[in-house]
Design a protein that fits this description.
Layout (H helix, E strand, L loop, with lengths): L1 E7 L4 H10 L7 E6 L3 E7 L13 E2 L5 E9 L2 H10 L9 H12 L9 E9 L4 E6 L8 E4 L4 E4 L2 H7 L8 H10 L13 E2 L4 E6 L2 E6 L17 H18 L7 E4 L4 H13 L5 E7 L9 H11 L2 E7 L1 H5 L2 H8 L7 H10 L5 E3 L4 H4 L4 H12 L2 H16 L11 H5 L2 H4 L3 H7 L6 H7 L2 H6 L7 H4 L10 H27 L4 E3 L5 H8 L3 H4 L16 H4 L3 H7 L19 H5 L4 H7 L2 H7 L4 H12 L5 H18 L2 H5 L8
Parallel strand pairs: 13-14, 13-16, 14-15, 16-17
Antiparallel strand pairs: 1-3, 1-9, 2-3, 4-5, 5-6, 6-7, 7-11, 8-9, 8-10, 11-12
Helix pairs in contact: 1-4, 2-3, 6-7, 6-22, 6-25, 10-30, 11-21, 13-21, 28-29
Length: 658
């Protein structure tokens, strides 16, 4: 795991140094640079494989014709190394980075097809003056770049680009509009004008002044579905177990201590159970719980039960709102791009890093095996034609929550009952988007100043973006929902937040449930293997329901049933949530009021101060959800800590200490 940086076209040595300084937290063990007349590369290294100087980057071939910087882990590097050695190649290190370099030497851009893991890397060809960069299939490792027609600059973090002094810190109006819609900025957009994120499963090539970006992998579409029928459920569960076992085994390869996050849910429980099966000693596991303010959300009792059942060496930490209030400023720097999520990842990573350098986690299980409540809701609506009633209910709830955000004339009219009805008629993507929207279009328009509304594409529905991810020909509804979750919410928010927050503590996080071979297998399965209509009431009854009651994750549970406590699927599904609403009315209130106070809001000039004040008042009386308020606070915090900080400040030591 590393931080990487590069310039093609008039490289600047000082810019490389500043960018690497800003990514010291990503790689505290080593740093290096390469520079020639056409390009410059920099890296900071967190040593995981081959801790010797042989793993130093940037790494070159024997003749120095190719140079690579690489962030991530390629888990099948041993297999590929053996294949290349059989052809007569000799290696100087035992790193996956050198294997990628040799594969590129052999295959060029097609090398990505042989890689299994999480990665973002760049190779500079000194003879052909060509740069090639690629990002892993599911979007686990980030890569950002900017190209002005003369110079390409790329990095693992936006902070590094800004710290280099080569990128101006101007807020992207398109990125801001997307942030208000989702609470995060989906790729390829970012919140920095002119900076893009290389999308998952894509690579880019810069040669002879021309930049090309191409997709090399995607989830199977409806037309790609295997023609042969799937095996029976028992045989399929056995096949899934074999893939899970292999994926976990590969992610245990490390020359430093490895542990796991254990939340108490099925996903992390399955991962830890398979780790325990593969190792001789106890697995180090970590969980975060809460005091009385978050007792209803605390899963640590379930995590403790699992830890005892699996014989792990378990660490539990209780976090309070006061603890979070003390680190608010660090959160803004750590997140790299704002999100209303991510604090939970920061906290559990902080705990784990005291004992291990690598941690496995269960991200991907809900998206791949239909674990989220919205799978249930969308399926129920599809079967029962019940979604119009839900739309009406949610619109009326939104009206009640927004208070003065919606013009008074709206109330009491026909629009009160059937607002956005025409949009909803567009179908599935719009219905999905309703449950993944931070601020609906009307709220966005009411929130933004006239200047911002004129400069940014404010008020677009979530479906405008989500439609590009959808596969209308997917083999069933469950696959269609899963695709949007995997390519949207998981890739664009969960994985990005986890990378930023774990690397703030120099912790590498691995995600075995989204090994691409496992994803390809599970995604193609019939939806009935993952989900069957449970025995809970219509929408709303899924809250605090168990997996069995929801009918969720059937094939995943069956594949690991013998490893978990008897009846574990009957426990309520909680999810790893923080008691943010309670904290924001208590220990976090001063920070929120500072970030969203009238002076702060007017100085920034993006939002109407009276509307933000109305949101805060509505939140305090329980009429506005906490995540809307926190998303605006996180945006202001990020602007202060990243945009306003300036290149010199960002180039300082950003490592976070416990």
């Amino acid at each position: 795991m590393c931080g990487i940086f590069g310039i093609v076209g008039d490289p600047v040595t000082d810019a490389i140094d500043r960018a690497c300084d800003a990514m010291r937290h990503r790689g505290p063990d080593d740093r290096g640079a390469y520079l020639d007349a056409g390009a410059g590369l920099g890296m900071t290294r967190l040593a995981i494989l081959d801790l010797s100087r042989a793993g130093h980057q940037p790494m070159g071939t024997d003749d120095n014709s190719l140079w690579i910087v690489h962030n991530g882990e390629v888990y099948n590097f041993g297999e590929e190394r053996s294949r290349l050695e059989a052809k007569g190649l000799r290696f100087r290190s035992y790193t996956d980075t050198e294997v990628i370099l040799r594969l590129y030497e052999e295959l060029g851009p097609a090398c990505v097809d042989r890689l299994r893991g999480m990665f973002a890397f760049a190779v500079w060809d000194t003879r052909d003056r060509r740069l090639f960069a690629a990002r892993d299939r599911l979007g686990i490792k980030p890569l950002y770049y900017t190209w002005n027609g003369r110079r390409l600059v790329f990095a693992s973090e936006l902070k590094a680009l800004l710290a280099s002094g080569l990128v101006e810190g101007r807020l992207s109006m398109e990125g801001l509009a997307l942030y208000l819609t989702f609470g995060y900025v989906p790729s390829p957009c970012t919140l920095i004008e002119g900076v893009q994120a290389l999308q998952p499963g894509h690579h880019l090539t810069l040669e002879k002044g021309r930049l090309t970006v191409r997709r090399y992998w995607d989830l199977p579409t409806g037309s790609d579905r295997p023609a042969s029928p799937p095996a029976g459920e028992r045989e399929t569960a056995a096949q899934l177990r074999a893939l899970l076992k292999e994926s976990v085994r590969l992610r245990l390869i490390s020359d430093v201590p490895v542990g796991a996050f254990l939340s108490g849910g099925i996903d992390s429980g399955a991962v830890v159970a398979l780790m325990a099966e593969a190792r001789s000693g106890p697995v180090r596991t970590f969980s975060v719980g809460f005091d009385e303010a978050g007792r209803d959300l605390d899963e640590t009792d379930d995590a403790g039960l699992l830890a005892k059942h699996l014989g792990t060496d378990h660490t539990r930490r209780i976090v309070t709102g006061r603890d979070v209030a003390e680190i608010v400023d660090r959160l803004g720097r750590a997140l790299d791009q704002p999100s209303f999520d991510g604090i939970n990842s920061y906290l559990v990573s902080q705990v784990a890093r005291t004992s291990v350098t690598v941690a496995l986690m269960g991200v991907g299980g809900d998206e791949l095996f239909a674990g989220y409540p919205h799978f249930w809701r969308l399926h129920w609506e599809h079967r029962n034609g019940g979604w119009p009633h839900r739309v009406r209910r949610e619109i009326k709830a939104a009206l009640a929550a927004t208070g003065n955000l919606i013009e008074p004339w709206f109330r009491g009219t026909i629009l009160d009952r059937y607002a956005d009805w025409a949009r909803v008629q567009h179908g599935f993507v719009t219905r999905y988007g309703l449950s993944h929207t931070l601020f609906p279009p009307a709220q966005q328009r009411a929130l933004c100043t006239p200047g911002l509304a004129a400069a940014a594409p404010i008020g677009r529905p979530a479906s405008d973006y989500l439609g590009s991810l959808d596969d209308p020909c997917a083999h069933d509804l469950i696959a269609r929902v899963s695709r949007l979750d995997l390519k949207g919410y998981m890739a664009q928010r969960l994985l990005r937040d986890m990378d930023a927050m774990s690397m703030a503590h120099s912790l590498e996080v691995r995600v075995p449930l989204i090994d691409h071979r496992l994803v390809e297998f599970a995604y193609a399965l019939p939806g009935s293997y993952k989900y069957q209509h449970g025995d809970i009431a219509p929408p709303g009854g899924e809250r605090q329901a168990s997996y069995r009651q929801m009918g969720a994750k059937r094939i995943l549970i069956e594949s690991v049933r013998d490893l978990l406590p008897v009846g574990y699927e009957d426990r309520p599904k909680t999810g790893f949530h923080l008691p943010m609403a309670s904290w924001m009315k208590g220990p976090l209130r001063p920070a929120v009021e500072d970030l969203l106070g009238r002076v702060s809001v007017q100085r920034r000039g993006l939002f109407k101060a009276e509307t933000v004040a109305g949101l805060l008042a509505g939140f305090r009386r329980g009429a506005v959800p906490w995540h809307q308020v926190w998303a605006l606070a996180a945006l202001e915090l990020w602007q202060r800590q990243v945009l306003d900080a300036g290149a010199a400040a960002l180039a300082g030591d950003q490592r976070v200490t416990a």
